[in-house]
Structure formats: structure tokens, C-alpha cells
Amino acid sequence: MNPSTPPVAFLAPGHTSKADPSDVRRNNRALIFGLLFPATELSRAQIGRRTGLSRVAVSDVVGSMLDEGLIREGGLAHNPGKGKRGTLLGIDTQRLHIVSIDLSQSRFIQGAVTDLLGTILYRSELALGAEDTIAIDDIEQLAAQLMDHTDHVIGIGVAAPGVIVDGTVRRSTALGWHDVDLRTPLEQRFAVPVSVDNDSTSGMLAERFFGQGGPNLMFVWFRRGIGTSVLIDDVPVVGENHAGGEIGHISIDPEGPPCPCGKRGCLERLISSQVLEARMRDHPESRQTILEQAGVHLANALAMPAGMLDITDICVYGPPDIVNSDFINAAQRYLDQTTASSFHAQTRIRRCEIGSDIAIRGESTAVLRDYLAR
Questions:
Q1: β-bridge mates for residue 73, sequence order
Q2: Within its chain, how far is the Cα of 43 from the centroid?
Q3: How many domains does the chain divide into?
Q4: Which CATH number does the domain housing residue 311 bear?
Q5: Using one digit for the tens of pLDDT, what is the confidence trace for 175-211?
Q6: Where is this region: Disordered (predicted)?
Q7: Per-residue pLDDT for 220 more than 60?
Q8: Cys-Cys with 206: which of 43, 62, 118, 362 at CB 3.0–4.6 Å?
Q9: What is the chain's Cα-based Rg?
């Protein structure tokens, strides 16, 4: 590993490593933090051996990270020889905090203050009105409540459904938004950096660091709509127009129900959680059939990108009454039929086991990623 190259999971999409000497210190900081995150402890000597950084470089960067509150000193490293035992370093969960806000759920928005590991220290939520719409004033009100309960905040993160570019929600059919700038009003009011990310990307980061996900992962998100995020070699794939993973608006049935995006029969109009819950209420005797058909629809949308990208791990997050064994098993059978070959290992579809705080925990990691990239 090149010691001047930071761990890509801690670079925001669009950032690249540079050879400019002015970036080396920042890159080395991200590299060391990535080795320790979320729960590894290493001595300075061990960090040097794993990164290839010189003893002086490690000491310099570690010293500044200790002062900053990113890492802390703990016990002593195991030393089978007779030499001096080094002090172990780990992530500091005491000094720096993050405010995360989740806009992905219906009927309310929720937020929390977390430490650097996404552990929730304080939470709050704000009920929405009968129309279930969200205004920027609602987000500011919730952020103010959270900011009043903490200090040393390194950033505010917002997880929202839709296509997001540089802090602006360009399009969100779930929220009914077009070109809504979230970053500017929040940064002006609270004077801290603000990160705005697609909710499925936030969920994917939580699965990667706190769940079972590896560096190559396709993450499917069922909440207000349906979204997908893809991780390749620990790099989130956002696409040229930041719309990578918008499978909710792939038309599965061109003669199907109209979608707010302008097409008909989009996946989101066929198998979103709201659509499936309504269908099962109307036809409770057909519950299993409805879920199995939904699983087939999802697998149909995922089969080609999974095969093209050679991804073998698909993780699905959603309500347990929808993303259950009937749904997953039907999707797995269809995917096996369409992607199995002698040169492609089986792609496994599994249910995400992280709880309802997934967007908050993932968005806290997104804020941390942006903080290190700066």
C-alpha cells in the first residue's frame, strides 16, 4: 500500500488521492484512521509496519490526531520479546461528536448525536403533518435541538432519498423535491460543515463498517422509496450524474402504473414498502404470493448489474414484514436462474440485520469520511 494513499472508504465520492506534497499529511491521517476504524488498536510501531510510513511521519501525524480528538491512547501492546511495549492507539469516542438526521422514513424525521463510531448519545424526532411533507424549517428545528445537547461537533449529516449533488437534492420523488439546497442554510445557521447523502448510501456505509458487508457490496434500501448503492473495492459508485443506484425508477412494466418520474411501471411503483403493504392489506390471503412476486421483480432489476459488476453480496434493508424469508428466497431463486455460471460465483441475497438507526449510523460515518477528506 502506498503510504500517501488514504483508505478509499474514507474519501467522499469524487475525491482522489494526489501526489501533491501538501496532501500527504492529510492522506496519512486518513490512512492511519482507516486502520484503526472502527475497533482496531495498534501501536505506533505496528502502524508504521502496516503503512510503510517512517517512524517520524507516524509520530507526527499521530500526535496531531491525539490533539485533535480523533484517536486516544490505551493499554500496552503485546510484545513477545524483551523490548519496550508500545502504547496502543484506538478511536477516541469521548471528545468529538456528529449530528445525523434521517429523512428516509414516513410520518416523522429523526436525528441523533453520535460519537465517531456512530454510537447514539442523544436522539430526537419530529412528527410530520398529515401530508407527510418535509420542509427545511423542520430539518433546522431538529438540528437545533440536537446541537443544544452536545459540543465539539465536527459536522452535521443528512440522509435523504433522491439524487444529491454537492449538498443539493436535485430530484427526490419520495420527498417531492427538485433542486433543494440543504447544505447552505444549515451551514449558515450552525457554522459547521454539512454533508448531505443519499439514504441508501448511508445505509450501505453502516452495513460496511458495522454489519457484515465487505469492500464489494450491492445494498438495496426499502423505506420511502427503493434505492441501491454499490461499493466496489471500498469506493462508492455514484455515477456521472450522481444518480448511480436509482433502480427505483427502472421500468419493469411499461404498461404498469404511472410514476412521478414520468415513466410507467417503475420498480418503486410495483414493490415499494408502501405499495406492498397496501396490497397485502387488500389481499391478506395472498400475502406470500405478493412477497414472492416482489422478490422476483427485485431480482430481475438486480440480475444484470450484479452479473456485470461481478458482485456476489447483495444486502437488502427494509421492514421485516416485507423483507422476510418469502421475499428473499424468491429473489434468490430467480437470481440463481439468471446469473449462475461456471465463471461467476453465486450472488447471495441476504437481509440486513442492522436496526432502525441504520441511516443515522451510516450518515455519521459519511460525515467522518468528509471530515477526513477535508
A1: 89
A2: 29
A3: 3
A4: 3.30.420.40
A5: 999 999 999 999 999 999 999 999 999 999 999 999 9
A6: 1-23
A7: yes
A8: 362
A9: 22
Q: Exposed, middle or buried by CB within 10 Å (0-12, 13-18, 19+), for 373?
A: middle
Residue 276 lies in a domain: yes
Print the domain residue range for 172: 97-202+358-373
Which set of grid coordinates corresponds to residue 272?
415499494
CATH code of the domain containing 66: 1.10.10.10
Do 261 and 328 sit in the same domain of this protein? yes
Query: Within 13 Å of residue 313, how many CA atoms lie on the same side as its CB?
Result: 17
Q: Is the pLDDT of residue 246 over 90?
A: no
Q: Indicate if 194 and 227 belong to the same structural domain.
A: no
Classify residue 122: in a domain, yes or no. Answer: yes
Whether 3 has a pLDDT exceeding 60, the answer reads no
- Tell me, yes or no, whether 1 lies in a domain: no
CB 335 within 8 A of CB 349: yes
- Percentage above 90 pLDDT, the chain: 74
Q: 347 with 216, same domain?
A: yes
User: Which residues touch 30 (CB under 8 Å, ≥6 apart)?
Assistant: 6, 7, 10, 11, 372, 373
| Residue 12: predicted pLDDT | 46
